[in-house]
Every structure is written in structure tokens, then in C-alpha cells.
Amino acid sequence: MADAHATMIDAPDRSGVQLNDPAAGDQTDVVSGRSRLRLNLPLVIGAAIVLLSIGLALAAPWITAHDPLEIADASLSPPSSQYLLGTDQLGRDVLTRILYAARTSLAVACLSAVLAFASGTLIGLLAGCSSGLIDGCLMRILDILQAFPALLLAIALVAALGANLPNLVLTMGLLFMPRFARVARASTLSVRERDYIIAAIGLGVSRMRTMYRHVLPNVAAPLIVETSLTVTLAILTEASLSFLGLGVQPPDPTWGGMIAESTSVMALAPWLALGPGFAIVFVVVGFNLIGDGLRDALDPRG
Amino acid sequence: MREPLLSARNVVRHFPVRRGLLQRVVGQVRAVDGVSFDILPGETLGVVGESGCGKSTLGRVLAGLLRASSGELWFEGKSVDAQTGAELKRLRRDMQFIFQDPTSSLDPRMTVRDIIAEGLDAQGIATGRTREKLVHHILDKVGMQQDTAQRYPHEFSGGQRQRIGIARALVLRPKLVVADEPVSALDVSVQSQVLNLLVELKRELRLTYVFVAHNLAVVSYISDRIAVMYLGRIVEIGEAATLYRSPRHPYTKALLSAMPQPLPGNRPERIVLRGDVPSPIDPPSGCRFRTRCPIAREICAKREPSLERASETAEHFVACHFA
Predict the structure, then answer these.
(1) How much is the mean pLDDT over chain A?
(2) Contacts of A217 in chain B (CB under 8 A)
(3) Do A300 and B173 touch (CB under 8 A)?
(4) Nearest-CA neighbor of A99 among A74, A62, A72?
(5) What is the rounded CA–CA span in Å between residue B184 and residue B199?
(6) Among A214, B195, B297, B301, which residue's beta carbon has the most beta carbons within 10 A?
(7) How many CB atoms lie within 10 A of CB A12?
(8) Which of A109-123, A244-258, B233-247 has the lowest mean pLDDT?
(9) Is the pLDDT at A14 greater than 70, yes or no?
């Protein structure tokens, strides 16, 4: 149908349309708004912390000479030049275990947060765009999920499914999914009545495409922020579950598990809890900073 | 006589009112309640009325953004309501809409280029260089600089945003453009610029406008014919000049008397309407205007006046027992 438009390209006289809009001259500020994601300090610091953590976790074999499961004959030895953060009851090097635990903890936390983001956003969009019955049913299911105390639900699910890594990710994903679904639904409800959605329909854009091109980008910002905050929650939940013996099973190290093991000898060897505790705080602060930074960076109006 | 571009026959649009736990329908808001008229190719029909009279709803129904609850809408001899899927999509190219609020009608996360080209993409009209060319051409036509294409809507003033909205509608080369109060959200100084732009574009692209507004001065400037709405109905419709010179319906007279006059002195008597507009959920019996009408009598409550020809010579219709 391009022929109908050919006339428009070579329309000869358009002098009459060049009106003097005084505001049209006000276009000096060209630089801003070009790139969608502008860097800010919290974002940079947070990203640096998280990247450093991931880097340390991946580089663990080259950083320490020990193996996380290797048992030395010096148990509960305080920090020394050979064991930088000391050893635990069985004589395993604490620093090595913290570094290896970072792999599991970060992987579990990130995967479950992403799972929660993907499933929650999909459900929220669906509920927000459909009306009445489907919306009602989905929301009531979420109500039921959220009515359980979070940790209780996690314990029940892990106990029922069996304590291994995929089940842990699945359980935590399900646990955090309703948060995303609610945020996505609420934003969708407010966005779908906007004029630009109606405009898109008026231009002949299909419903699916409208959802993908207009609704999703406009509800994405709070959800992405939510994801980075959920990672921190997931790290803490994984620590709690491991502490209770339902997360990653010993002898594989996790931060929560290490703190749990240290409780009996806390007074004798406080370094056992301090190391993994600090690791958790470090990573949680990193992801929180990313969350704060993204919230500002994702707004094109900045 | 020419074939009408768009014909409305007894168009009705009701919105259900839901209450209570079970969301039962307890009533209907009769936003548009039986409206009929023809729009000829190339003319501008102004639709005026106070807030809540249904003029915006009518505009959206005419542009195909809302389905009519009942009644018929014919566009170039084809029934709009019968169109679905690909046919409806094709039809949307010919009838475009300009929104009142230029801020909420532009997606804040899209560049001006993508906003304007969205119709081209959706309709599969142009890609690549051609798409770019059409976008730049229409930007030029609405008086925007070329470097605006890669910027975001929030970087522009209200008047500029409205130009972008106009560009988005006109890049599809529609035949009918429904403009819903396109200048009422703008500064007065910018209003006339946008109005002039609309007039220029209409002449150049041979457009047909339905121009919805509450500002009589704006409507009289741009319209060939004017329809006056009250509570979901057209109470008077006629050529702009005739309607202004000799309004027949008491509501039209009251509206016109409220217009500021440029010359002091020869000011006609001001007719002040008392009370509020009755609820469109439960409109008055008979003539809907009777509760506020200065000349209402018994018959007005009993029988609803229909649109009757008010003049032998001009196309002028009025719905009043005493006009």
C-alpha cells in the first residue's frame, strides 16, 4: 500500500505549515535522554560489589591453596598466615569455604529471583490485561500462596520435594513470585487505560504487540528493581533454609550453613560466623545498591 | 448530493454501572444516546457541549476506538461494526484520532520516530529508508525539526507533543480525523498555532475532521458545521454561520450567550442556566433539557422532540418543541 503514500513524499508546497512555534526553538538540550540507562553512583558501586563477588567466587581455586572439603589436622585454629580466616570444627579452611559457598549462594539467589521475575511478570500481565474471572482466579491463588508464612511454605515445599539445588531454586522462585505478580498487575492496570495504549489500538496494533511494545516496557522498571532486591532476600532465605538444614546439604558449603554450624562454638571461634556473615552483608548491600541505582537509571525522564 | 464519508444512524453507547460485591449491573450511563448525522468528505464537523455530554465518547465511537452499543456506523458505505480482524485494521488507517492530552497519549519510553512510525509498522506500510522518509516528511509537515526523531516525548513542550500526536495520526494518510479537544490542554498562545496547523493540514491533505471541543470560539473558527450535544443527544446541528447567527435551541442560545464578545456594548442578553446537568444514568423524561430550560412547558416532559428541519434554505436541524 506504499503507493498511497507516494503523493505525500513529493508534496511540493509546505511553506504554509512552517509555523512559528516559540517553543520549537527550545531544543538545546539534545544530549539528555539519548541513552536509556544513565549510570549513577549507587548503580556503579553496587555493580562493582556484585561483579567482585562473582569474580571471587569463580576465581576461588586460584585464590586459595585449599580445597573446601579438605580437612586439616588443625581444627578451630584462629586466623593465621596459613588459614587467613581460621578453620572450623573439622579443620576446613573458612576462607576457602566462603569463596566456594559464594558460587552456590549467588547462583541459587539469582536463579530464583529471575524465575520469580519471569513467572510473576507473566502472571501479573495476564491478570492485568484480562478482566473479571481470570484476574480474580489468579489473584486468589496468589492470596493463598502469600497467606502462608514464607519460611513455613519454603520448609514444607523443600521437605516435600526433597532437599536439592533445583528444588531449592524452584521453591524460592515460587515463594517470591507473588510479589512480582502483584506489582506487574497493578502497573498493568494503570498503564492499560492510558491514552497511548488506546492510540496503539487505533493505529491497528494487535493486542499482543501492544502488550509487548507498550505495557511491558512501562511496567518493567519497578519489576527490575524488585528483582535486584529479591536477590538479597533470596540470599537471606537460602541462608535461613541452609541454617535449618533444608538448603544445600553438607558437606557442600553455603553461607547460611556455615553460620549454622558455627553456633555451637560461637564463643570459642567467632571467626567462623563473622566471615560468612560479612559475605552475606557485602553481597546484599551490593544488590540493594543496584536496585536503588536502577530505579533512577530506568526512568527516561530522569 | 455527495456521498457521505461517515454516516451515524442512531448511534448509542452505554456504559454499565456496576455496584456491590458481585459487581452487578445496576444501571447504564447513557453517554451517547441515539445520535444520527452524516459527515461529507472534506468538511469539518464541530461537536460542542459541556462536560459529560458525551461528546468525547461520540468522538471515540466515530474513530472506531469504542464499539457502539447499538446503532449503525457507515464509513464509505461500509458498516464499521461488521469489520473485524484484517478489515478492521485496514479501516483504522482511514480513520485516525488526535487525543486531548498530548502527554498521556505518547508512550514515554518510545522515541518520537518509533511513536510516529508505529502505525506504519502495524499496518505494514513501510520499513527501512521509506519508513524513515515518511517520518521525516510528516515531522516537517507538522513544523517539527528533523532532530526530534530520536528524542523522547518528555523533552518537548505541550504544543510540540500535540504536533507529534498529529504527525502520528496523519502519517497513515487517513481520510477522517477525529480530534478530541486537541487544543484544550495547551496554553492559549499555542492553541492558535496548533489550530492553524490543523487547518493547513486539512487543506493540504484533503482531510475530513470531526472536531470535538467545549470552546465555542475554537469550534466556530475551524468548523463548517456544528453539532450541539446535550446529555448524549444532538439538540441542534447546522452550518456554523447559520447556527451562530440564528440559534434555535434554547441550549444553543445559552451557550452562545456565554461566549466572550470582542466588542463591548452590543452584548446580547446573557442567558444563565440554573442547576447542574442531570445524571446521564437517569436522564429526564421527554426533552432532556427541560429541567434547565427557560421556556419549558408541560409537553416537554411528555414528549421527546426529534431533530426537525429548522430552515427552508439551509441545512439546519433542531430538536425543540418551540424552535
Answers:
(1) 80
(2) 107, 109-110
(3) no
(4) A62
(5) 16
(6) A214
(7) 5
(8) A244-258
(9) no
Closest CA to B65 of B212, B215, B230: B212
Which CATH number applies to B6-318: 2.60.40.10, 3.40.50.720, 1.20.140.10, 3.40.50.300?
Answer: 3.40.50.300
- Tell me how far CA of residue A113 lies from CA of A174, A178, B62, in angstroms: 10, 12, 47
The span from the CA of B323 to the CA of B317, in Å, is: 10
Rg (chain A; Cα; Å): 26
With an 8 Å Cβ cutoff, is A250 touching chain B?
A: no
CB atoms within 10 A of CB B260: 7
Amino acid letter, residue A200: A
- Residue pair A215/A102 in contact (Cβ under 8 Å)? The answer is no
Instruction: Specify the residue for cell string 426537525.
Output: B308
Best mutation target among A194, A195, A299 (most B Cβ atoms within 10 Å) is: A195
Residue B98, phi then psi, degrees to nearest 5: -115, 125
Nearest of B115, B75, B107, B105 to residue B91 by alpha carbon: B75
Residue pLDDT, tens place only, A252-292: 888 888 888 888 888 888 888 888 889 988 998 998 898 88
Q: Is B118 on the interface with A (CB under 8 A)?
A: yes
3-state class of B181 per DSSP? coil
Q: Which three cell numbers stand for residue B170?
A: 496523519
Other Cβ atoms less than 10 A from the Cβ of B22: the count is 6
Helix%, strand%, coil% for chain B, nearest 5: 35, 25, 45
B238 touches chain A (CB under 8 A): no
User: Which residues in chain B (166-225) have CB-CB distances under 8 A to chain A?
Assistant: 168, 172-173, 189-190, 193, 196-197, 200-201, 204-205
d(CA B280, CA B94): 31
CA-CA distances (angstroms) from residue B209 to B41, B70, B174, B178? 9, 23, 10, 6
Buried b (16+ CB within 10 A) or exposed e, B213-227: bbebebbbbbbbbbb
End-to-end CA distance of chain B: 27
Q: β-strands B225-230, B44-48: how paired?
A: parallel
Contact residues, chain B, for A199 at CB < 8 Å: 97, 99, 105-106, 165, 168
CB-based contact B130 A206, cutoff 8 Å: no
* Predicted-complex ipTM score: 0.85
Number of Cα atoms under 13 Å in the Cβ half of residue B192: 5
In angstroms, the CA A118 to CA A112 distance is 10
* Pair A295, A37: CB distance under 8 Å: no
Cβ pair B125:A17 closer than 8 A: no
Strand partners, B209: B44, B177
Could A203 and B155 be called an inter-chain contact, meaning their C-beta atoms sit closer than 8 Å?
no
Contacts of A30 (CB under 8 A, 6+ apart): B147, B151
CATH class of A52-297: mainly alpha
